[in-house]
Design goal:
Blueprint (H helix, E strand, L loop, with lengths): L25 E2 L34 H9 L2 E5 L2 E2 L3 E3 L6 E2 L1 H12 L7 E5 L5 H6 L5 E2 L7 H4 L2 E10 L1 E6 L14 E5 L3 H8 L5 E5 L2 H9 L5 E5 H10 L4 E4 L6 E8 L3 H16 L2 H7 L9 E2 L6
Parallel strand pairs: 2-6, 2-7, 10-11, 10-12
Antiparallel strand pairs: 1-15, 3-4, 4-5, 8-14, 9-12, 9-13
Helix pairs in contact: 2-8, 2-9
Length: 306
């Protein structure tokens, strides 16, 4: 059984200002955090540390052959999604739940953080980056679907979200029923923009390379709504609650997976095992609590595909 997590979409409201299934397993916040800073509470949720395995050998994996030659992991991620995949422009460091998932996997493959190179890849370029060997695997709100499986393979899912709408406060748009004739923005290559095109909503789709550009154009009045996973939208709404809000009910189920080279079954199995290990030992919950869970909302671990 897979548990859909609309609530898990509520990103950490307090932390966002820094930007200026095994059914029954839950992640939940253990305390609050000061806006834009570290919590002074000793009980605040903290990111876990990951034990790096030794002697790992993935014979038969083409990706592993490249990894061994390079002596590092190159992991594709997002950079503009607070508490999911976000890069601080000052420190250049990446943070968020997706980043922690990427590091968990890396540790089980035998690589500590010093041997990870995070590479920002836009949604439209994910399949190309994976199949072309620009990244060894990709962790960035990457929905598993049959169309993508034609080009890449997946391990997971490690999280479940749902598509929703972000609008300006006071907008006449309250749900997908109100999208006829409206300009609705999402990222190029995303399942979200495709669903707007194919869903019969009568909307005018508008595409940009990133969701942050969509939000900028929403605030300036060039588009009427932004659509993507609720996990992402609530983060943007929390950054500007006076002007933005998420409306309606989620109208999809998005299973986030780790993208990797198609038919690299050896690496796929290793990543699946890594995800299960860190779900079972509590790292998944700790990582969630210290990122998305700071919103005060719980989430359940979705069941991994075999």
């Amino acid at each position: 059984m897979r548990i859909r997590t609309t609530a898990a979409a509520a990103l950490a409201v307090l932390a966002l200002t820094a930007t200026a299934t095994a059914c029954g397993k839950e992640g939940s916040p253990s305390s609050s955090k000061t806006p834009g800073g570290d919590s002074s509470s000793s009980t605040a949720a903290k990111l876990p540390t990951y034990t790096v395995k030794t002697g790992v050998d993935l014979a038969g994996s083409k990706t592993w052959d490249r990894i061994k030659k390079d002596g590092k992991l190159v992991i594709g991620v997002k950079a503009d999604q607070p508490n999911l995949g976000y890069q601080d422009l000052g420190t250049k460091k990446y943070s968020g739940f997706d980043i922690e998932i990427a590091k968990m996997i890396a540790a089980d493959l035998g690589f500590d953080e010093s041997k990870i190179e995070f590479k920002t890849i836009q949604s439209a370029n994910r399949e190309t980056a994976i199949s072309g060997g620009q990244v060894d695997y990709y962790v960035g709100t990457y929905t598993i679907n049959d169309e993508r499986k034609k080009s890449v393979s997946f391990a997971g899912p490690y999280f479940v979200a749902g598509q929703d709408l972000l609008v300006k406060k006071g907008s006449a748009i309250k749900s997908t029923d109100d999208l006829k004739g409206k300009k609705v923005c999402s990222a190029t290559g995303s399942t979200s923009i495709q669903r707007i095109k194919d869903g019969g909503y009568g909307a005018e789709p508008v595409e940009y390379d990133s969701y942050s550009l969509c939000v900028q154009n929403l605030l300036s009045g060039q588009v009427d709504a932004v659509t993507t996973d609720d996990a992402i939208l609530k983060g943007y709404a929390a950054q500007d609650p006076a002007n933005l809000e998420v409306v309606g009910k989620p109208f999809s189920e998005e299973n986030y997976g780790v993208g990797l080279l198609k038919d690299d079954t050896v690496l796929q199995k290793a990543i699946t095992n890594a995800l299960k290990n860190h779900e079972d030992n509590g790292d998944w919950k700790k990582a969630y609590d210290a990122t998305l869970g700071k919103s005060g909302v719980t989430a359940e671990i979705p069941q991994l595909e075999s």
